[in-house]
């Protein structure tokens, strides 16, 4: 059986943004010096402020033992009384499944009620649900509209004081403008909103602004400026920025090439669970960049990233099992990992799985199944896959060929939920 080679590039681009502030920490904070028993007494009089304060105490563990169930109960009471902060925060608990079952429809309900009262946190969070079709119909236009409303500066109707726009919404609106979702694509305006969010020290906006400088989108390409922004974002704990900073050091873009610094930043992000950074750590070990070539360590890191869903690591781990590189050769495991990568739409995983079915390696030989995966790979631009399709088609009956093409069409039509934003906000 001929070897099925897989070449996996080190990727750097990350998702953009975050759903937004789960909590209204930008509002005047509750005074955590108030005694818990005094709050209880005030809540018994029907004070929604005290109820919301108790919810905040139990959620954050500030001035009370952390207890998300109690937090949800107190937020529920305050929210029913119309307290917008409690409504937003209760929505976040439903969105994240903390202290209650995860229920996006309930999250949307409470975000909507808080948004009607002018809560920009809730507007941003509701926009994120619309962007991803969670609990509400997916509607990019509505998401962009909500982000824009929350992103803009406002003036308090009573005090007349200016209130800055919501930094997460500014970042998320920038993403919509950059990608042309719900609004006309406009890189220059995207930069404007990323810059606004970055000025407010939003780590996602800092990273995304850095990406615009690195790629020259809406601004003059400047890898050095990108590195400065990545560093500031990484210092704030942003794993995407840590990975991007590692990439600049690995490639020597805007700075002197340093595999040691690249490894440092990749590992910082990997330690925080970022799969793409794990993939990059593995690749440095695989290629011996800054370290001795170590295929065993590389395989271990690829496996960590593969289990976290990184399709490139899944394909690379499959290749290592196929060829006995860093692991014991195992065609069954190779086929399984190729299948996981293929199911995510990765072309190299699809052609490799197709050839496994063609040769009967790790799976039962099945020309129709081979044709399906090779056809999908060819649709994704793999030229060799198209060549294999023509050869295999000669050995299939018209019925088998039609059935394989129908299966490929069903695969393409699958609802694929690609979350480009990180799943949790501040």
Would you kindly provide a written description of the structure presented here, covering whatever features stand out?
This protein is mainly α and 426 residues long. Among the domains are: 36-117, Alpha Horseshoe (Serine Threonine Protein Phosphatase 5, Tetratricopeptide repeat), CATH 1.25.40; 139-252, Tetratricopeptide repeat domain (Serine Threonine Protein Phosphatase 5, Tetratricopeptide repeat), CATH 1.25.40. It has 21 helices and two strands. A two-stranded antiparallel ribbon has the order 1-2. A hairpin with a 6-residue loop joins strand 1 (154-155) and strand 2. The model is unreliable at 1-17, 21-28 and 417-426 (pLDDT under 50).
- What is the highest CATH level, the class of one domain? Mainly Alpha
CATH superfamily grouping of one domain: Tetratricopeptide repeat domain
Number of strands: 2
Shape: globular
Determine the N-to-C terminus distance.
Answer: 52 Å
N-to-C series of helices and strands = HHHHHHHEEHHHHHHHHHHHHHH
CATH architecture of one domain: Alpha Horseshoe
Strand content: under 5%
| Average pLDDT reading | 90
Structural class: mainly alpha
Give me the side-by-side strand order of the main sheet: 1-2
Rg result: 25 Å
Summarize the structure in short.
This protein is mostly helical and 426 residues long. It has helices spanning 36-44, 48-60, 68-80, 84-96, 104-116, 120-132, 140-151, 167-179, 187-199, 203-215, 223-235, 239-251, 259-271, 275-287, 295-307, 311-323, 331-343, 347-359, 367-379, 383-393, 398-412, and strands at residues 154-155, 162-163.
């Amino acid at each position: 059986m001929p070897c099925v080679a897989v070449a996996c590039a080190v990727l750097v681009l990350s998702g953009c943004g975050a759903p937004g502030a789960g909590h209204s920490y930008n509002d005047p904070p509750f005074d955590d010096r108030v005694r818990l028993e005094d709050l209880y007494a005030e809540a018994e009089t029907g004070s929604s402020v005290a109820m919301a304060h108790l919810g905040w105490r139990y959620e954050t563990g500030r001035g009370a033992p952390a207890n998300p169930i109690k937090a949800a109960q107190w937020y529920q009471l305050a929210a029913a009384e119309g307290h917008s902060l409690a409504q937003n925060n209760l929505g976040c608990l439903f969105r994240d499944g903390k202290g209650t079952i995860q229920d996006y429809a309930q999250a949307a309900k409470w975000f909507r009620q808080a948004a009607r009262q002018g809560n920009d946190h809730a507007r941003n969070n509701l926009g994120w649900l619309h962007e991803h079709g969670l609990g509400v119909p997916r509607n990019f236009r509505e998401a962009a509209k909500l982000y824009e409303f929350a992103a803009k500066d406002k003036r308090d109707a009573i005090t007349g004081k200016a209130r800055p726009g919501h930094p997460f919404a500014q970042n998320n609106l920038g993403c919509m403008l950059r990608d042309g979702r719900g609004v006309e694509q406009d890189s220059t305006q995207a930069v404007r909103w990323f810059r606004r969010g970055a000025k407010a020290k939003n780590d996602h906006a800092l990273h995304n602004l850095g990406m615009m400088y690195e790629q020259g989108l809406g601004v003059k390409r400047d890898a050095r400026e990108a590195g400065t922004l990545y560093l500031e974002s990484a210092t704030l704990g942003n794993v995407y920025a840590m990975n991007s900073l590692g990439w600049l050091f690995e490639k020597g873009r805007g700075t002197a090439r340093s595999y040691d610094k690249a490894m440092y930043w990749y590992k910082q992000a990997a330690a925080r669970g970022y799969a793409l950074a794990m993939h990059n750590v593995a690749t440095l070990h695989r290629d011996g960049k800054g370290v001795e070539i170590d295929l065993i360590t590389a395989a271990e890191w690829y496996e960590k990233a593969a289990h976290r869903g990184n399709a490139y690591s899944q394909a690379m781990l499959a290749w290592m099992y196929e060829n006995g590189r860093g692991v014991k050769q195992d065609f069954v495991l190779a086929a399984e990992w190729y299948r996981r990568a293929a199911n995510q739409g990765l072309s190299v995983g699809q052609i490799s799985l197709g050839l496994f079915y063609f040769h009967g390696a790790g799976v039962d030989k099945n020309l129709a199944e081979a044709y399906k995966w090779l056809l999908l790979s060819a649709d994704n631009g793999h030229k060799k896959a198209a060549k294999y399709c023509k050869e295999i088609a000669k050995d299939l009956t018209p019925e088998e060929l039609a059935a394989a093409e129908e299966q490929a069409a069903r695969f393409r039509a699958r609802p694929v939920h690609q979350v480009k934003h990180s799943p949790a906000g501040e």
